[in-house]
What does this fold into?
Amino acid sequence: MATIVQFENVGLRYGPGAETLSDLSFSLDEGAFYFLTGASGAGKTSLLKLLYLAQRPSRGAIRLFDADVVTLPRERLPGFRRRIGVVFQDFRLVPHLSAFDNVALPLRIAGVSDDQLRAPVEEMLHWVGLTDRARAFPATLSGGEQQRVAIARAVIGRPELLVADEPTGNVDQDMATRLITLFEALNKLGTTIVVATHDVDLLGKVAGAQMLRLARGRLVQPESLLRSPSRSVG
Amino acid sequence: MTRPPAQPQPQARPYTPGSLLPQGRITGPMPWVIAIMMFLTVLASAAGIALDHAARTLSADISDRITIQVAEADGDARARAVRRIVTLLGETEGVGNIAIVPEAELSAQLAPWLGSDMKISDIPIPALIDADFSVPQDQRDARIATLDRAVKEINAQARVEAHATYLAPLARLVGAISLLSFGSVALMAIATGAVVVLAARGAHATHRGTIDIMHMRGATDAQVVRLFQQRMMFDALFGAVIGFTGAVVVILAVGRSMAAVASDLVQSVSLPAFAWIFLPMLPLAGVGVAWLSARITLQRALQRSL
It folds into this structure.
């Protein structure tokens, strides 16, 4: 299996204090499903920011899609970002855009015309069960609905890498299971998935998923990341 | 679970901002500030052009005009001197359009002070001879001095007065006020740019969340800048049109008032035809300043983020 992400001795420091992430060395396989776990403050969100190119590391090397993204010129980042889907912990839906327009955002940015994006956006909204909420604004959507809009927005561009930060943190257990099922379906279509969560119940729900565990900014037992879940949710 | 749809192939056509920013203005009071700036800019420009036009007209009128004053008390001697001086002027190179100011005209000009029933022959009023004196600028003073000596040889009480000598300070004052007007226009253009910079920074800060989302979804700086720039340009255009319209109304009203004043000096202050081509360009220039200011400000702000 090809490597889609490779970290080598990566460290991240915000300001003059101690490193938030230290000595991270690991690789992610293309088409695999990863859970990123760790206690609050362990550095999960910071690691995800490095993955979705919202942050550059203070030291070390990161290769993404076979390119050195640490030294990549800023002007070339948008092209890489279009290959990554991101589900933010706080959804980050654009408040004055409807669910339809929020989902359409990545396609509009990619230059797809309104005529061409209508069908795929409607299909995606149907996929996440929000067809009848297409014209609703985020403020009128429930937490679960907002989460699904955020997921639809993240995956509509068929990203090669999907990064989700605590995607089940604001939904009930039933919705969490449904969301993980959505991710698993996407993964089966070839997208590499990284889900940050501290919900241990999720970890056993995806067959073949692997686990990255962070503690105080360092990977714990990096040499034995593979975990075989006892069951999967179909 | 159905298969998620494949992304359509992106087209070459440019991205259209659509409704990515909230409806309505994104720049707060900026359009109204620009309206006020444009109002003042158009008025200052119109004043500058009109005064510049007046100064040029005045300069052209006086630069080659002289008057020979014969302040001889004896009427017969004065008449003889006038005849000889006219002959002298006629033989002098560069002098033309010689005209003795009629006594009736002198009487009319003096009537407000001396009364209309006075007889001009009763008082020793100087005789006046107007003439054009067209010589190169660098020879003017020397040639006038030579002519002055020549007329004094005819009559010691005669002297040559160049109109430029006593009207030049006025022309310079009008020119200086004109320059001041254009200086004001330049300052207001800078102030307009500063207002747009502040508005652009405000809009950037207010919509930072949307910008971050766009960036994370792969938007380029150019796309984000274009999005804000277009909206800011429309806001600026709105203000510029309002300000320009108000200023034109004022200019037309002032023009009508000035036309009613029977003064050569006041009537020389008028807008030449080219002003009506130049003034409508000001709102367009204002929008251009806004466009450029917004672009530079936003580009700098975006480059501070990853």
